[in-house]
Amino acid sequence: MFADPAHGRVVIRRRRPEFCEPEVLRHDHALRAYLTTRGFPCPALLPAADGETWVELDGAVYEISSFVAGEPFDAASDAHLAGLGRTLGWLHELTCDWSPPAPKPWVREDHPSLLMAPLQDLIARAEAPARATLLRARERLVEIAAEMPDGAYAALPQCTIHGDVHPGNVLFDGGRVAALVDWDWASRQPRIRDVCDGLIYFAAQRESAIDLSLINIS
What we know:
Blueprint: E1 2-4, E2 8-14, H1 22-36, E3 55-57, E4 60-66, H2 78-95, H3 112-125, H4 130-147, H5 150-154, E5 158-161, E6 170-173, E7 176-180, E8 187-190, H6 192-203
Antiparallel strand pairs: 1-2, 2-4, 3-4, 5-8, 6-7
């Protein structure tokens, strides 16, 4: 982060390599521009001198966004939970009919079809009692795939979702969301994905707070 006389405090972010394909950048930045022009709490991208909203230096891609001040999620705050719900509803309403300039037909890394291979590898290398736990996880994964096959999942109501809703990606200002950040996983998917992430990360009762260092925050 540095001080810019024209924009005040800004955020410089280096994108992970897997999110740097040109069509992915066009998709994500067009979505953010669409949302910010409609007042949605998404940090605005600041263009470079040539008008581009990203720059490549030494093989890495960087983007600069406006800085948004906010407070972290408070699990004891009903206002924070309500604010998140309103914000996700607003997002899904805005993006229901939004057409991206480039396709992004991504499947999340936790999809059953992608989890089975690494799970099998873990089972092969694990020792008791961890192996027994992993075997139960495999059984549940098979059950989930049978209960919600790809066709049924794809038939659920869709829009362009955030795709990575967790406390590390949301800032609050009183009872409203000040900023929803990290749009790398945004794509057109069943909107229930965002809803489920919201329920798991924000609405579930826990014995202790979520350790954000264990969540992949980019």
